[in-house]
Amino acid sequence: MKTFTQRVYEIATQIPKGKVSTYKQLALLAGSPKAVRAVGAAMRNNPDTTVVPCHRVLASDGTMHGYSAGEGIPTKIHKLEEEGVKVVNGKVDLNIFLWKQSPQK
DNA sequence: CGTATGACTAGCT
DNA sequence: CAGCTAGCCATAC
Predict the structure, then answer these.
(1) Which domains, from first to last, does chain A contain?
(2) Is the pTM above the cut of 0.90?
């Protein structure tokens, strides 16, 4: 039995490039739709942003609450833009970039 | 084991 | 739109 945090990492690493996910979504996929707080805690504890694309994890509204790596929020936005995600007014269009957990897989 | 904290969310004012 | 409250889970101390 892995810890909730470990499971969140597994899911986060599955997020494809050019797509984003939300804390709520990750919590749901992890098995606890209300553990969004725990997801955030895991991301903050994030061991390696290289294996865990926490920058692809946004709030439920497509906005971002925080980021511990780089310059913080600015770096997070910049990374998303580099990935091909369009960031408008510090927000991302979840209707377009929201990851759908590869329904094929 | 109990308390405190947090990168959350939704609802109200 | 901005600010505050309440609920909820997992982790750290």
Answers:
(1) 4-97 (1.10.10.10)
(2) yes
Determine the nucleotide nearest to A61 by Cα–C1' distance.
B9
**Strand C at less than 7 A from CB of A32:** yes
Query: Can you give the pLDDT at residue A16?
Result: 94
Q: What's the mean pLDDT in A37-43? A: 94
Q: Which nucleotides of B are covered by protein (CB under 7 A)?
A: 5-10
DSSP alpha helices (H): ranges in A46-72? none
Interatomic distance A32 CA / C9 C1' (Å): 8
Per-residue pLDDT, averaged over A46-64, amounts to 92
For residue A65, say whether its CB is under 7 Å from any atom of strand C. no
Band (A103; pLDDT cuts 50, 70, 90): low
Dihedral pair phi/psi, residue A42, rounded to 5°: -65, -45
DSSP A7-33: HHHHHHHTPPTT-BEEHHHHHHHHT-T
